[in-house]
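Schema walkthrough. Field components (list of strings):
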Amino acid sequence: MQKKDFLKDAVKHIDIKAFDSTEIIEAMKDMSFTARDTAEAAKLLNRMISDDECTIILCIAGSTSAAGCMQIYADMVKYNIVDVVVATGAVIVDMDFFEALGFKHYKGSAFVDDKELRKLYIDRIYDTFIDEEQLQICDNTIKEIADSLARRPYSSREFIRQMGKYLTGNAKKPNSLVQVAYENDVPIFCPAFSDSSAGFGLVKHQAEDKENHVSIDSVKDFRELTEIKIKSTVSGLFIIGGGVPKNFAQDTVICAEVLGKPAEMHKYAVQITVADVRDGACSSSTLKEACSWGKVDSGCEQMVYAEATSVLPLIVSYVYHIRGWENRSKRKWNKILE
Amino acid sequence: MQKKDFLKDAVKHIDIKAFDSTEIIEAMKDMSFTARDTAEAAKLLNRMISDDECTIILCIAGSTSAAGCMQIYADMVKYNIVDVVVATGAVIVDMDFFEALGFKHYKGSAFVDDKELRKLYIDRIYDTFIDEEQLQICDNTIKEIADSLARRPYSSREFIRQMGKYLTGNAKKPNSLVQVAYENDVPIFCPAFSDSSAGFGLVKHQAEDKENHVSIDSVKDFRELTEIKIKSTVSGLFIIGGGVPKNFAQDTVICAEVLGKPAEMHKYAVQITVADVRDGACSSSTLKEACSWGKVDSGCEQMVYAEATSVLPLIVSYVYHIRGWENRSKRKWNKILE
Amino acid sequence: MQKKDFLKDAVKHIDIKAFDSTEIIEAMKDMSFTARDTAEAAKLLNRMISDDECTIILCIAGSTSAAGCMQIYADMVKYNIVDVVVATGAVIVDMDFFEALGFKHYKGSAFVDDKELRKLYIDRIYDTFIDEEQLQICDNTIKEIADSLARRPYSSREFIRQMGKYLTGNAKKPNSLVQVAYENDVPIFCPAFSDSSAGFGLVKHQAEDKENHVSIDSVKDFRELTEIKIKSTVSGLFIIGGGVPKNFAQDTVICAEVLGKPAEMHKYAVQITVADVRDGACSSSTLKEACSWGKVDSGCEQMVYAEATSVLPLIVSYVYHIRGWENRSKRKWNKILE
Amino acid sequence: MQKKDFLKDAVKHIDIKAFDSTEIIEAMKDMSFTARDTAEAAKLLNRMISDDECTIILCIAGSTSAAGCMQIYADMVKYNIVDVVVATGAVIVDMDFFEALGFKHYKGSAFVDDKELRKLYIDRIYDTFIDEEQLQICDNTIKEIADSLARRPYSSREFIRQMGKYLTGNAKKPNSLVQVAYENDVPIFCPAFSDSSAGFGLVKHQAEDKENHVSIDSVKDFRELTEIKIKSTVSGLFIIGGGVPKNFAQDTVICAEVLGKPAEMHKYAVQITVADVRDGACSSSTLKEACSWGKVDSGCEQMVYAEATSVLPLIVSYVYHIRGWENRSKRKWNKILE
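Field assembly_structure (string):
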């Protein structure tokens, strides 16, 4: 088999506007187990939208963007369903920015010989394939952007805004999350930014001038997100996966307290995950546990134990078609940070 | 809180005819991870329906019937999507027959004090509640049915047919799986029948006459199901959960061989489960592993790692609306067994 | 590769007497997560042993016997740590009785081509291999035993005693669970007996004389185990996996009530499993949930979320070396049932 | 209940030198499932130690340090079993540095009312409790350290070395991982350093002087770890959990290539995790999948699907008692970075 035989069926990102899950979600509301949890999560996201005071923070870890959910996240920004995004570097750079540059993810299989893929420079994410040579172009584009900037420490948010700006002139695919967020003044944070394709580009940038270069200050990210939390009063988390984005967004409540500007706990929280609570890790910790830390209020929290690609389209299609977002004012948090 | 405060919101069983998941499944087909697996499972079930030769065996373990999927299973029989059912005793007796008698499952919570439930005679299945006093009426009905029968060993299938017959005159809720299967000559097997509410009724029945009574011969079940497999040539499995029903249905291929009437491996197989392959149990073993045993052919098998309430409605709604079942001939396997 | 290349390294069953886990368990007692759960389970099993009134029921589902734990279970009977065994047919027949006949399980791999195994008549259990031709000899031995018995319904316990008796003269490997249990009057129940290699032998037996034959009455199993529960007053469950054995043993409390002889809930319970509570199945339901059903008392129950091969050796080695079993009287429950 | 009632039984960290797991590991080698995987992992770590060329990188995510494994990690550094540590900020700051300051983790329960804990300022990690007021002292100590440093961007490694230096004069508990690593010139990296208690202290530090302050440049971390990888030729990963540390350490191979200094794939890799491969996230991706990315060589990799507290003590006790580390030269990678 040749490379092109592996990379022929592109993943197509689901369009939650093209079908209406309202009836299914309403029916699931009266079931039990994960079906009911899914319906409750949809209703809770809708409540966040209806709460005029509420800033909604979307947290994304894992590879759902590569797996067909990329447009969902962009649509959540476009239709004013979320106000802030906290994600892993892989989600923002390797997946979203990567496709904005015109590249694709491909439908593959988990039952393959990884050594054969290695030889062909094909990277595998479970049952999905990527052309590694295209990823290298992505790395280099990050380097070019860094090269074009003033030498100083940046928050990841500041850097990602530059990526959004770059896309307004250079995108091959419109409506990427990075570009849509840029255009709507929705901040995107990657607290572990260098742990991604961006890291490769930035290391190369720094290696060329070890004294004078762009650096990424994750402390600044934390300051900025905490500032948003302080100014928001009410906030809600919509968490896909867990990991650093979940912990980082939760921690802003404590950080506000540390700064002497006590903020309310996150009032609403939804998490969709397959993580196993028994290992005591942050990804798997329940939202009730987060209450003991003073991060998430109890009462309006919902765990959905599912692999997100199977339930997220239902949840967001529901919220889209209920159209509570139509009357919602735009937060444009990027503006207050600059 | 009183009993009635816990038992007030009944679970409503989802009606997969009332909404059309065709568009969602078609979109999921081009995604990855569980979304694509779900779509592939729907398409594979549809292929089984289109294969004129194929007998479709529905295997059910776990509590999805209590959790809102009860009508899905009855509809699969009614609309000629499945030809044989293999299930746990709990699915058939404690859940389906129980509701046919007019009782309900109730929406509850996993975050309760089980001691308090105990005092109120409320049984809990994760986030679902049952009135234990009603379950006792169910036990007694089984005893009455046993009391009315000729004393001899029965296969569970024979006994469940008597339950179906009983319901034709006594059901408070129409269209239970037990009754619909009876009316459509679709056999239902419970290889561990006494491991359920049926067991309580039958023990009581036997205790009244320790020498002369109805007994349940699970070997006969195995003979009967193997006979169906032998006469079917082509067969497909649609498995919810795993456990004894999965193993029992798979084993008929080997049993046919033991009887000197070699049968083909099950040609198609779908399994929806959250079980973890790493423990080496049957429930969690992959359908590829079943190939090494000569039970399931490889190539047309699909695992869906999901809690079934969240994906089963999408899969069966798709198959229903594609309407391949309209031209399918009824197998009426009960007839050949009597 | 030839068959002998796959079947060359036999699984060796761990001998928990050959090493002493006391120090590790004591250290784990002061840790958290699964380590502490493991230590608590060991201590709870030890408490069951110290309670003079307590009948200890070992429930086994899954394939740990094939995976190196076979001698642990036999030793638990031999050293008077358990009084009753409830297991799947596969554990008792395909694994334990199979090895007693002189056959072996082999160390294999999960990363193989199952079609190739199929061609060689090798069956796979996750990373373990079995020679299918040897399994057929096991089937036939069951048939021979059935052929030698008076034609009537048997409980699985009665039949398994006959298997134990057979082994006293014919075993190639001493100290199998089936034989040791026979010799110590410890009853073994398989509530879904025909769902195993035994089923193949028994179907063949019945097929030769469809009117007059041995049958397996699982209702009788339930009556017998309930009788033990009623006579035991205090009881404890030690559960590996879940499935039918767990449910069956738990249900005896309810069954006693149905028979008008109310029994106390199981006072102690340990369960080792990787099952996921979120699917609402019996295997995964917590022991606290069992309290709502009036089956297991709360306060003395411990879940250990682990694949059993990794923690069971530590738990039973601890209990063995504490030597509480030395002063424990033998229950010999088989005697009261005959 | 008062705060002191919840915080009375401190977690005691297991000492893998105090017991010898050699016999258990050797026995598990001949079993199957997780037991054999555990034994293979122990043997593979031992192989890394025996390979003179090999730099061993310990990656830690999750809360095993809080749960009783803290001394294991410090001992791995002290006894020259690992050469580099990559961890989450929580592991290094909230857990290890926190205890070095004289504070404790406490044995708690997962079955508590989190609102009650909230009122008492007790934080919960699954079944483990922490005094939040003590965590605040930890935050402030970080701020003090930052205040004492020259204003410029630091890699997390540089900053953590300052924490180690601080402890040489101020530690209340000796032998913390941070201090032992400092004393042995073993670098510690936290690629998402601000996502922890350190973040709180650093945000406070920066808030006091928004123009001139210490910042944490995670790109520098990546450069430094890649430099180690380039100079190591052979490398092995020993991964607890997954998350950012796993991805970050794996990515150094690619980063070296990006810098034009191609490095070999990591030759050895062990990962202990409960993560579920089906969600396509980095934490759960298999080490075979990492081969397709050119990060981990296939052949010498071992996944252990277990909650780490239950198997890690066995693995490291084995390696300690085999004593292959006695003849191993110290890498002292910190020296080449300064």
